[in-house]
Design brief:
Blueprint lengths: L2 H18 L2 E2 L6 E2 L1 H29 L19 H20 L3 H28 L3 H6 L5 H29 L1
Antiparallel strand pairs: 1-2
Helix pairs in contact: 1-2, 2-3, 2-4, 2-6, 3-4, 4-6
């Protein structure tokens, strides 16, 4: 792995850590900007680097830095948010993989909605079901208050990724 790749992964993890530490508690799952960061980082960095950035971010939280909705340590990984946290690198990999194929705004919005929201809500709900003893349907309904905000995050992440990657392409063409 090149220094440039490591730097991009570190910057992605730092971005996630900085915005992931902000949380508004509204129940077992707080409102955060984590999904905005994950979708944006994965869409820009691609599958490998995007998912590695998310893993580094989660490791920073595991070692105790308060980057996981304002908390850190192992508690978030054995509580109601475990399914969401474990789904983040999977979602980042899938968003990144497909974004490497198609970087248009409609395509990125679709990947963000399917993997950034659909997959994360599914696995997060499974975690809630197990950790809180809820029925799957009850666990799934916990996500309802987040749908509008997360959809806006998916749109914003796609917009940012298109702008950043378009600028990279212009810079490459000017350099050659």
């Amino acid at each position: 792995m090149k220094i440039k790749d490591i730097t991009q992964i570190a910057i992605g993890a730092a971005l996630l850590a900085s915005i992931g530490s902000i949380a508004i508690p509204i129940g077992p799952v707080p409102i955060t900007l984590q999904m905005l960061g994950i979708m944006t980082v994965a869409s820009i960095l691609g599958a490998k680097k995007g998912s590695l950035a998310v893993i580094v971010y989660l490791l920073l939280g595991m070692i105790g830095l308060p980057v996981l909705s304002g908390s850190g340590g192992l508690a978030p990984f054995v509580g109601p948010t475990v399914g969401y946290l474990l789904s983040f690198p999977i979602a980042a990999y899938l968003i990144g993989y497909f974004s490497e194929q198609h970087r248009s705004f409609p395509a990125l919005v679709t990947y963000n909605l399917v993997f950034g929201l659909g997959l994360v809500y599914l696995l997060g709900s499974l975690g809630l079901q197990v950790m809180l003893g809820l029925s799957f349907l009850d666990a799934l309904t916990v996500n309802i208050p987040f749908i509008i905000g997360d959809t806006l995050k998916a749109l914003l992440a796609a917009f940012l990724a298109v702008k950043v990657t378009a600028n990279k392409q212009v810079q490459r063409s000017l350099a050659s």
